[in-house]
Amino acid sequence: MASILLSGCIPAGAPRYAPYSRPAPQPSRQPAPASDRVSTLPAPPPAWEARPVTADAVQVPSSIYTVESGDSLRRIANKTGAGSEAIARANNLHAPYTIYVGQHLTIPGGRYHRVHAGETGIAIARAYGVPWDQIIAANDLEPPYTLRTGQRILIPGNKPMTVAERAAAFNLDIEDIVTGGEPAAAPHEKPAKPTASPTRVLPATTPVRPPAHMRGDFIWPVRGKILQGYGPGKPGNRNDGITIGVPLNTPVEASASGVVVYVGDQVPSLGGVVILKHGDNYATVYGHVSRILVQRGQSVKQGQVIARSGDTGLADNPELHFEIRKGRDPVNPVSKLPQG
Asked: What keywords are assigned to this protein (predicted)?
């Protein structure tokens, strides 16, 4: 089983998967099994587990291709096995990607994985043992980082890895869930329309339609003492959000209207987690909750109760870990929340 840690806090100069703002836990400080401490609504496992990826990337050699009559960028990609986006970047082509007969195009070599229906960035990263952020960089992916069925993406690195090595290299963090957790959609497939009801159980491999734009400002999800602020904390540690002390079972409210994109307990350091997307590439994260009251694909309104606070994961006390993210980047929540 792959090691799964939290990205909430990042030791300076160390891999970004260290537990946030606390020293590495000792054996006696391991979190209790999340399933024993986090109450969730009935739901399928997330898409990266429901739709695992086979590491069947094709190794494509670097070459020069001469454009023939009837060629398009996608047809050339199918002929060579390289990604159409990678070919466009290598040749400085921009939409509408006009090419002409006799033109010489550079075909960038490398390992190319063809995305199948329902696959996620997380599952692809897990299959190859390559961090999702490296795949994002290698393919120049932009927010919202959505994959499409049939797309060929470049997998960084060429070193063969065993199954055990790939599992050991894989880490799941909040950034990955926010930017690599949605299933790939066919070019003309419409994502599922959000519903207001938590009783609808959306198939894990069905894409969710997030809001295009955010409406209004953020509000505090709970009221309480800030136990740990954003940024550097204890020596060598960093918090990507804020930690708010609250009594057990305090209602946790949606900081802004949006759509639920993740509910679960797969980040042991955080225990129960709810993630919302709000449009304009904003997302909010609610961790350490003990009871989750919403479903993936559910539309929620600002101020709606989405969970109950807890002390799950590596929480020292009853508390809420709260993050605001813009794309992959964390934002100091206090700078976005009402003062006073």
From this structure: Hydrolase
- What are the residue boundaries of the structural domains of the chain, listed by start? 62-108, 191-335
Residue count (the chain): 340
Q: What is the bridge-based pairing of β-strands 329-331 and 319-326?
A: antiparallel
Q: Are 244 and 230 in contact (CB under 8 A)?
A: no
Any idea which residue has 């002409």 for tokens?
100
Residue 170 amino acid letter: F
Q: Name the token pair of 68.
A: 């023939």
Q: What is the pLDDT of residue 340?
A: 67
What are the angstrom distances between the C-alpha of 43 and each of 126, 251, 262? Answer: 22, 21, 11
User: How many C-beta atoms surround the C-beta of residue 197 within 10 A?
Assistant: 9
**What tokens were used for 64?**
């020069």
The fold for domain 62-108 equals Membrane-bound Lytic Murein Transglycosylase D; Chain A (3.10.350)
Domains 62-108 and 191-335 share a fold: no
Q: What is the CATH number of domain 191-335?
A: 2.70.70.10
Q: What is the CA radius of gyration of the chain?
A: 21
Whether residue 2 contacts residue 233, with contact meaning beta carbons closer than 8 Å, is answered with no
Q: Which of 6, 44, 104 is nearest to 313 (CA)?
A: 6
Residues in the chain with pLDDT values less than 50: 1-29, 35
